[in-house]
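Q: Convert this sequence to structure tokens.
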Amino acid sequence: MDESNVTYLTLDWYTEINKYRYIFFFIMFSLYILIICTNSIILYLIWIHKNLHEPMYIFIAALLLNSVLYSTTVYPKLLIDFSSEKQVTTYSACLFQFFIFYTLVLSEFLLLAAMAYDRYVAICKPLEYQTIMRKTTVGIFLVVAWLVPACHVAVQAIASAEAKLCDSNIKGIFCNNAVYTLQCERSRLITIFGVVIVLDLAMLPMLFIVFTYTRIFIVSHRSCKEIRKKAAETCLPHLLVLLSLSVFFVYDVSIARANPDFPKTTRIIMTLQIMLYQPLLNPFIYGLKMKEISKHLNKLLSQANIIPCIKT
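A:
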């Protein structure tokens, strides 16, 4: 199939659930509203309370903002597809979704690495914390976390835009790495730079995070009970988020590189992991497990008479 003949792309997932699409529409719409509300509440608490204007909470806010943004990149189009007879998109729109989605997802690894460094300085070098983790430092970390993935993913998106297509059927529910399967032949640039992205934006941050938290747990183990408690309270939530993100990323890379013949149900469940579990996991972990945020959340919900006070 010549590239000039491939203007619109179809998504193959919907054919099997067409008669249940309105039920799925209601479920996905409800989940999208839940994602927006839960993340926005924690963002609001961090914004209005000055005692949460610290580097760790600013990084958490950036992570929650990411969840809102990449959910908004996927869910509205998903809802349109559920309410339509035909699920189609243009190749340019598909690549734009691809670019925004992976820029935000990959930035989470860098944000988690920045959070790990922040915890390392706070626990292992407490006397130097204020000197090292200044507002300028935090700002640089945030810019790097968003700008570097954008530059990397832009290369993949531009190279994919120039590629010839031999298929118009996306094997997925949105434009993720499945766009590579549409190409007649994957260019050397896409292949090589894909490896660079995996190393620079996933593997290296993950190794840095594991090394940093290992150092933190070694230092805290040798310290008093209060230090060990502080390390557990602030580090374990970050590790849970990292674990969840890593599971999806391993699956996503395996789909792009090896293109295994996964059952369609398995592909759907694993793709939904980052669309659903990750954006919902972040606010619940940080809202319930981070002591200071939990206090303010408890107070907010109590004032609104939504639920009785939560023990913090």
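Strands lie at 8-11, 88-90, 169-170.
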